[in-house]
Design goal:
205 residues, alpha/beta
Length: 205
């Protein structure tokens, strides 16, 4: 990625409200490019190929792994998920910051390859709240819900690996905090170096 393009990693246990926060973020912040992941899981009702995910067969996914097309990939909840290098290149071509919606395994791989990436972890307010959200969204079987809860127990133990933590207890506040992180990072001095140099030169003319 060019130096002028930021990479933001967003991770959360299933049911923590990450998808809703991402939708609100794109309404609030311009210049973001959402990385659409590839997955082998079947689409849910209302999902469209190429919008929420690129839905592919396991054979196709494995072929992409073998041909080194992924920045990161992981096996989560019984399915494969991965971020293709094509998404990274597309964001750079448009001069936008890349937003990655990935799990803790993928996040660790991206940080190892791209240490400049900014990582954000979203916490649910409690175990009971997370379980209630998973039940109320009615997209998983009871067995799948139990698996997601168990995975959540393991995922939240990795929160200290992230740069920022957002507690999604109040959606409005959580959304404001997420947008604030993006804005704050964009204002870092080293990311403004080129613009600052032009301004300094204007004072010398």
């Amino acid at each position: 990625m060019p130096e002028n393009n930021n990479i933001f990693i967003l991770s959360a246990p299933s049911g923590a409200g990450k998808s809703t926060l991402i939708q609100l973020l794109f309404q609030e912040i311009a210049g973001l490019y959402f990385s659409i992941s590839h997955t082998t899981r079947p689409p849910r009702e209302g999902e469209t190929n190429g919008v929420e995910y690129f839905f592919v067969s396991e054979q196709h996914f494995r072929e992409m792994i073998e041909s080194n097309q992924f920045l990161e990939w992981a096996h989560v909840h019984g399915y494969f998920y991965g971020t293709s290098y094509q998404m990274v290149e597309a964001a750079a071509a448009q001069g936008k910051d890349l937003l990655l919606d990935i799990d803790i395994q993928g996040a660790a791989k991206v940080r190892a390859r791209l240490p400049e990436a900014v990582s954000i972890f979203i916490f649910p307010p409690s175990y009971d709240a997370l379980r209630r959200r998973l039940v109320e969204r009615r997209t998983d079987s009871p067995e799948q819900i139990l698996q997601r809860i168990e995975n959540a127990r393991q995922e939240i133990e990795h929160y200290a690996e992230y740069d920022y933590i957002i507690l999604n207890e109040d959606l409005v506040e959580a959304s404001r905090n997420l947008a604030g992180i993006i804005r704050s990072h964009r204002c870092k001095r080293k990311l403004q170096a080129e613009k600052i140099e032009k301004i300094l030169k204007s004072f010398q003319e």
